[in-house]
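Cont'd.
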Amino acid sequence: MTKQIRLNAFAMNTVGHLSPGLWRHPRDQATRYTDIHYWIELAKTLERGCIDGLFIADVLGVYDVYGDSPDSALANAAQVPVNDPLQLVPAMAAATRHLGFGVTASVSFEHPYPFARRMSTLDHLTQGRAGWNIVTSYLASGARNIGQDRQLDHDQRYALAEEYLQVCYKLWETSWEDDAVQADRKDGVYADPRKVHGIHHEGTYFKVPGFHLSEPSPQRTPLIYQAGASSRGRAFAAAHAECVFVAAPSKTVLRKQVADLRAAAVTAGRAPDDIQILEQLTVIVAPTDEQALALLREYREYASAGGALTLMSGWTGIDFSRYAPDQVLREVPSEAIRSAVEAFTRADPSRTWTTAEIADYCAIGGDGPVLVGSAKTVADQLQEWVQETGVDGFNLASAVAPETFVAVVDLLVPELQARGLFKRAYAPGTLRDKLFGRGDRLAAPHPVAALRRDARR
Amino acid sequence: MTKQIRLNAFAMNTVGHLSPGLWRHPRDQATRYTDIHYWIELAKTLERGCIDGLFIADVLGVYDVYGDSPDSALANAAQVPVNDPLQLVPAMAAATRHLGFGVTASVSFEHPYPFARRMSTLDHLTQGRAGWNIVTSYLASGARNIGQDRQLDHDQRYALAEEYLQVCYKLWETSWEDDAVQADRKDGVYADPRKVHGIHHEGTYFKVPGFHLSEPSPQRTPLIYQAGASSRGRAFAAAHAECVFVAAPSKTVLRKQVADLRAAAVTAGRAPDDIQILEQLTVIVAPTDEQALALLREYREYASAGGALTLMSGWTGIDFSRYAPDQVLREVPSEAIRSAVEAFTRADPSRTWTTAEIADYCAIGGDGPVLVGSAKTVADQLQEWVQETGVDGFNLASAVAPETFVAVVDLLVPELQARGLFKRAYAPGTLRDKLFGRGDRLAAPHPVAALRRDARR
């Protein structure tokens, strides 16, 4: 059988996620983000197209590097205002049966004891369709607002994230034995106290003696997502993640990232395909190539260069407002900015990038590529991406919400299905079981398995 | 017009809320608490009966005072396992149009900056039907699990709660001006940066310079609930709360509590009826008095004395496992326990209370009274409670879930409506506007109004 492509939809509880400016498009509905029915409709659309999951990004802070001010982010609705992603999910789960849900949460804002309960609740209410995208870093503006004048340095951040995850794993996996909940109305014992255990965690950052407040959910540990680009981040993802998001600007760059990640998984004692890798893409698909190109031209009329550079400045820490639109960025005498545009240059070493070209690139779909064409054209391209890079699938951002996703479901999905590249029906079971076909729970060689084994002794 | 009675339903994202043991009843469905459809059905039932709101309690900890162990709580499902209440609400809001939703959250577990965003998100997704029950204290077991060996003392707790609330008020009320969000597709400005302000909060416990991440929700500040029993708690409630929950064992005790609260509101510069007071009650209603009494007898067969004393021990800090069932508690040489049973003794000074009688009292409906009878009988009693105490309404707990609520909606509500004591349709607007009829926003003399005025200068 041909390898099946994974498709995720990528969204955020905000107006302008990765295409700032496009909220001005007459058909864009992202300004309905505070309406729960908007999200329920989206979930139903995605499930109609057998999309594997909806992944909801989050930031707890503001993009204020551009112009040293949050003004551009506010005016462009560039990921601000931004609401809590978690509360959207149970309502969408109630209206669907199979769609998975990934939610971003940073290890920096909430103690793992209440956080672990939130995720267990989510996994219960979705009947095992919950995923957690672990974020180890955060915007400086977010840190300041919880009273931290300085962020932890890079290595400390990963040490804290590692311990945070250990606390969560212990609560999720070792606190309640499989048969602790008896719920036997006759003998009158809901949970057998002998089978519920305090985790006795005493670490550098956290001290948690007690047991988990939630009974075991279908997956116990939610599906673990990660998006780590640095070498330390890659090692973290290789050790823990089941799905990894990347946003490579070209197949050449992606092929190397995929190879590096799979090698890192092996170094961490796991199999190369224990991690599914999803490339961030925006797909603009229409009945014909011409119509798709016309759609892209139409979209570009609403794109915001300022919004795009605001996001880019936040991601890189470089204030792009300081460079003229026609400034060739490789010529800027700054190590930081050369490193920031290096990925773009690597994608195509024959060309240079000006500020305006970077803005143009990021204005639709953020830092991921845009594919444009008929379903046949785009399916051809996706097949090439998979064949040439070894990537497992794609994390699809929207240009116009939800129009981009509706077109994917109505046009692209049937073409991929006809080619045998995409499922016609969901597999049964939890999100983890649907994606890996090995049951509901994290299994060896994932470190959770050893933790569980040790706890049983 | 006769004064309208307010009716709230009282629940918790757990198996055994206030009637531990009753989950064993063949018709009880509380073990479905992890099923989002269970909650959606409940919300629809309540809205069918024009119930004002569903109030979801929460604890982040375990009742481990009884027998110095969590074993009894686990076996009896006495508020453990317990899941996050917040995630239930948007799904219920999507299935209803008018029902309000109150959610308990302690000021001790999450920083106000991310917490304020959670509540704004909730108010957005419910279209202005969100309430927050502010809890200032917590179980010692919860404190230990977030690495705090000692809780703050009583006064410090209220000082922290006061500052926490100030931070939230500033984020909700003063950060975004009313016309900050323009969402004008033509001029391309989503939010006018000149109308979004950092709150520059620098206090004893919190330092929050930035602006709120959420744009203004329909109510901005969610409806403020509180349940404060101590004199410091009463002052806090009198200053901030719009609805106060009490659980008096008798009309005599309740009358004094209501009078004290209204007097405290006046001391705080507010009007006596700026606070709506709801007495916790469990109502067992059936077509006839005989059938209701038979139902109560049937329920009592499933009640758990151990579960009841586990809750009571947690609430009072006294280990009731140390006293024999026939021990008259007034004779125990302990100041603490005499003070704990004082409320019961005040309710009826002519009698004494044994451990078994306390257990019996609390086994159905926890620390609130139980009213039993036909709709006519119960309506008569509720009318007496309102007339003799000045209370505004009732916070109804369930014995068998959701059977108790279904009976209230099908039998009691029509009787109250026929008497002109209960609305036949919801008022329009947000939860606050429905309850007070003065608009969506907190108005003077509530302290928020002054804060808003000062910010405008």
